[in-house]
Amino acid sequence: MPDLAHLLRPDDCPRRERKVPRPLLAEDDQLLQQELVRRNDLASNVLLLLRHTGMRIGECVDLSSDCLHAGAPEQWAIHVPLGKMKTERLVPVDSFVCQLVQRLRFLRSLDPTPADGFLLARPRGREMLLRGLRKSLHEITAAAGISAWIVPHQLRHTYATFMLRAGVSFPGIMKLLGHSSPDMTMRYLGIALPDLQREYQQARSQPRHLVPQPRPLNPARADLSGLVQALQAAQHVLEMFRRTLPDGAPRRHLDRLANRLSKIVSEAHSLDAPEK
């Protein structure tokens, strides 16, 4: 109805869901890194830098020559310049990434292009440098025996997933990637069945909602440490017994006892051992 067309705004139509590149398979990631390390040329070092920092390829080509920043002893971070989200950030790195940057600095010193402050030379411009890196990635994946079509942005997704599996918190991953929205970070992470199996088994073996398993109690110890251990053992047994009871008066009574026992344990922790 043309007469009503003015009532429809562009934001009334939901956006189409964009397909985000998925992280590399563990086997492909290993093969690719082995081939990159073996080559040890300009493109391979840049791609390794992408894989181990989670930078976008556009951010990487804009790195300055002095992008490495030293914090505490043996602690380094790489300064990622203004990128897609118009933000800049510091990404913690290890000695391997420091070696990559030093290698790229050395290769930059051999390039006849006059120094311009960038870590990577761009004799034919920024866009040609980006095209060359993407083309090199396709050649390297083929040489590594990887049949899948891989784009540089997948290295960023692989980095995020690796950080998650290594134990980095979700807010930490957001900071590393430079995201302002948790929804975008969730689209980056690849959670496979082995990850779910590992977390499920860990949750079954060490439930967070249960009182921690007390250490074996030595009945001969009559000191403050022995008192705290005995109280924690009683706390654990009470909690295990309480969970076996159905809802009702006995369970509510044990809830009150558990609260009292928790206060006693807290007060016992604050006691000072008596002087002899």
Report on this model:
By secondary structure, this protein is mainly alpha-helical. 54% of the residues lie in helices and 5% in strands. A three-stranded antiparallel sheet has the order 1-2-3. Strand 1 (68-70) and strand 2 form a beta hairpin. Helix 2 (42-53) crosses helix 6 (153-165) and helix 6 packs antiparallel against helix 7 (170-177). The longest helix has 21 residues, at 224-244. The model has no long low-confidence stretch (mean pLDDT 83).
Itemize the secondary structure elements and their pairings.
Blueprint: H1 26-39, H2 42-53, H3 57-61, E1 68-70, E2 76-80, E3 89-93, H4 95-110, H5 126-143, H6 153-165, H7 170-177, H8 182-188, H9 193-205, H10 224-244, H11 249-269
Antiparallel strand pairs: 1-2, 2-3
Helix pairs in contact: 1-2, 2-4, 2-5, 2-6, 6-7, 10-11
